[in-house]
Design a protein that fits this description.
Layout (H helix, E strand, L loop, with lengths): L10 H30 L4 E5 L7 H9 L4 E3 H11 L4 E5 L5 H15 L10 E3 L4 H4 L7 E4 L5 H10 L3 E4 L1 H10 L10 E4 L2 H6 L3 H10 L5 E6 L4 H11 L3 H4 L3 E5 L11 E7 L2 H15 L3 E5 L12 E2 L5 H13 L3 E5 L14 E4 L6 H8 L10 E7 L6 H7 L5 E2 L11 H9 L2 H19 L14 H7 L12 H15 L7
Parallel strand pairs: 3-8, 3-9, 4-6, 4-7, 5-6, 7-8, 10-15, 10-16, 11-13, 11-14, 12-13, 14-15
Antiparallel strand pairs: 1-2
GO cellular component, one term: nucleolus
Function: RNA helicase.
Family: Belongs to the DEAD box helicase family. DDX18/HAS1 subfamily.
Length: about 500
Amino acid sequence: MKRKHPSTPSESEETAGEEEQEQKLLLQQATTVKEKKRKEGSGILTGKLFSDLPISELTAKTIKEMNYTHLTHIQARSIPPLMEGRDVMGAAKTGSGKTLAFLVPAVELLYSLRFSPRNGTGVVLTHDVAKKLMKYHSQTLGYVIGGNSRRGEADQFAKGVNLLVATPGRLLDHLQNTKGFIYKSLRCLVIDEADRILEQNFEEDMKQIFKHLPWNRQTVLFSATQTVEVVNFSKLSFEKNEERKGAPVYILANDAKLNATVEGLQQGYCVIPSSDKFSVLYAFLEKKQPRKIMVFFSSCSSVKSSASDIHGKQKQQKRTTTFFNFREAKTGILLCTNVAARGLDIPDVDYIVQYDPPDEPKEYIHRVGRTASGEKGKGNALLFLLPHELKFRIYLKEANISVTQYVLKKERVPNRQPYFENIVCENYFLKHSAQEAFRSYILAYNSHSMKDIFNVHRLDLKDVAASFCLRNPPKLNMNLTSSASKHRKNMRKLDGGRRRR
């Protein structure tokens, strides 16, 4: 007898069909997620395009020439409310693209209002980044920075400055004393590096600045770190505008990663005794040329005799010239202190070398932030640590900073120490400079906030002297305990502090 086939599928056939449909659905979802990730890129990028922004052709042309295509998280979240005229407070790590996040809306604001020199200043920025983006715009750009010629700055105002880049101290000076400074039509104030401004005790200056500027302006505040002080400062910045515009937009860009530094940054450290530090640095710089490299030291005296350097004791004109030359260069070496760690727009830096460790992880973040920035950001950072300084890694880890140990093979480092010592010790000026650098280094070391790691009494002074190419340590006629706080205070002033006139 023939078996009659049922007109409906069996239970097993139904189950197989459901599994097949489920597998297709999962495959489709996986493909969608993969395609979304491909479009968004990695790390700081989103899937949103600059070409989709409602911006002028002039700005769009410049952005295209700068090879930017996709917006970063902080840009995608900040630009729309800023272009609507909203007050914004944003926090994003160094290298996440926050500069364009506030600069694009600022330039577009001036363009849309057709600002001309006779209108005076429409936007004030506390960051030197505007020149490139304004390449095709007719609006004027000016700078007022402590240490520059005040008369030359006053001449700029007389001609008319639409977008002004300023440091707080010098900005307040001109607001109070320069008659040709026309700012009654100011539409936007952008405060970048707000945490840095507060660290340098500029809060009182900023309060006075707020009193002078039109209250119905747009205010934009960006910071690399969120602290109680920054939050309180933001309330002071925004409080008068809430009735007119509503509460400010608060933006925290985690960039899909918990790391404190950007994804394209390769970070490592080497354990090097003091006596070998200079030879290792020399060999590293020699091997890595031609590259663009920044080397950070703890004191001005360690770098002031070099060919290309930036530190707080320089006259502003020389510091500015050095900065612009290095910024435009394709390769080269810049020796610097923390004055170059923040607020400087230096493209295409390949390596950050920290010859002397920073005072704390926050300083580390800002130093390495000079490389690997932007949507295609790639860069390298190398930290020199003495054997007794290894505990510093624990503090870096607590700050979500991951560094890899690079094992130093001594046979790969030529022993040039006797040669360097001969050069230095046989030249009076070089020897004097090295001795001053040695003394300054000891003071800086003694001023470290992490005394459990950076204990000056654990240093071998003869080995430290060797790191400055000296055969023997010079005499130290100083009270380290009382001098440390004074040295730290002076360094803060020099590295961007109150040198406004």
